[in-house]
Write a structure and sequence with these properties.
This protein is of the alpha+beta class. The protein has a six-stranded mixed β-sheet with strand order 3-2-1-6-5-4. The chain has a six-stranded mixed β-sheet with strand order 9-8-7-12-11-10, with helices on one face. A hairpin with a 6-residue loop joins β10 and β11. The longest helix has 12 residues. The chain is elongated. The protein starts with 5 loop residues before the first helix and ends in a 5-residue tail after the last strand.
Length: 190
């Protein structure tokens, strides 16, 4: 993979970050191969099998992350490298609720300090493990990139949930930004 390295990506991302959020959606550089970089389910970034301990560097890399189809890439104006993401690239580590009912707004903060308010442009979805039924909740952060909502935040969301009728069925879910996000059919709650 000539030219592509974590150092060259960090340098390019740092230059772009000085001008505001990088417009990675506009960049179409040549694919330079895969980089031995992985984002674990808990949000830890690894390079060459070692955790990246510098939060600033992780935050910088997260700013140039893009998802095309099912694949994840770090993208700069001059290179595009593939990385591995075990689940979602971000973890929502906090949630703030304002208002109640249909006027409620749920604002999430990720481990890389992105803030997003759930609503039509930033939906919440819950996937249940087919074997265990264990829920995995997500919120869309930006352009195909989701955050896994951590357990403590999800428990707080459950306390804010309500029951609503949808297509003739009662659902337990959440209101945010004028949108209702179903979590589980009410009949399945114990």
């Amino acid at each position: 993979m000539p030219g592509a390295s974590a150092e060259s990506l960090a340098s390019a991302a740092g230059k772009a970050a000085k001008k505001g959020p990088p417009p990675v959606h506009l960049w179409n550089p040549p694919f330079c191969g895969d980089l031995d970089m992985r984002i674990a389910r808990d949000g830890t970034w690894y390079y060459l099998g070692t955790p990246i301990g510098r939060h600033g560097l992780v935050k910088l890399f997260s700013s140039i992350l893009r998802k095309d189809g099912n694949d994840y890439f770090l993208v700069t104006p001059v290179e595009k490298v593939g990385i591995t993401v075990e689940d979602a690239p971000f973890v929502a580590v906090d949630v703030e609720a304002e208002g109640t009912g249909r006027d409620q707004r749920l604002t999430f903060t990720t481990h890389v300090e992105d803030r997003v308010t759930a609503g039509p442009d930033h939906p919440i979805r819950v996937v249940r493990d087919p074997e265990t039924g264990e829920p995995s909740p997500y919120v869309l952060v930006r352009a195909n990139l989701e955050a896994l909502i951590d357990r403590k935040s999800f428990y707080r969301l459950v306390d804010l949930g309500t029951h609503e009728e949808r297509a003739g069925e009662s659902w337990f879910g959440l209101w945010s930004g004028g949108e209702f996000f179903p979590v589980i059919p009410s009949a399945e709650l114990a």
